[in-house]
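A student in our group prepared the protein record below, which I am reviewing. This is what I was given:
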Amino acid sequence: MKVLVLSDVHANIWALRAVMEEEKEYHLMLFAGDLVDYGIAPAETIRWFQSAPDKVLVRGNHDAHAIRVRDTEDWNHMPSHRYKWIHYNLQRMSPEQVTYLEQMPEYNTAQADGWAYLITHSYGGSYQTIESSAQFEEFWRAHTPKAMQDAPRRRIVFGHTHRQGLHLLEDGMEWLNPGSLSYRRPDDPDKTAHYAVIQDGQVRLKRIPYDRTPQRDEALRILREEGMMETELQDFMFFFGSSPSSRSPLPKNI
């Protein structure tokens, strides 16, 4: 059985398409949250996931942030010095698509090839990770149904940190982060899309290049029009352009 594990696509339909061109067939898809924000194609990304077969999804913190901003800010009339990618995303999503984000659960479960899976976006309030078997056990029992709690082989799938890795705590007790399809943390210059494939129970961490120019070019267009917060555009120039850091000066005379 082939399980495709994705997370943190962040409205980046180009990275998603590249991965799906590589992984044309799968039996089950696990998605650990963050469909939107910090990308330019939220509507297309949501539509793709809505139509994808055999999926187990959870909501991420940026998905929840989109819902909060919709409900608490005048996001459709934000001045340029306060305008962020989340406002850009909301302007390109339908009300029904935001409702789709609302309806996604925070925790979900699946089973495949003798492994029980708990899927959620993050552990703890920030970028914490599970470091011990005791932490794993406590988290697992708090968020899985009783029938799964004593499964002999258990994996938790996280997203959020954008750091790809597989952590073995003891035999049959692992947690997996497939990494982000879209972008890295400021200390990681890698520009590929990160994901994982679990084939017959065996985990493979994978990376694939994709076309970053549509996102870069849209950021440059907004920069020319002085239409967004500087730090938001600096992030994009690092993620999708050639800036050496997420706080490098923005291009001039473009």
The two ends are 49 Å apart (CA to CA). Strands lie at 2-6, 28-31, 55-57, 107-112, 115-120, 154-157, 165-170, 173-177, 193-199, 202-208.
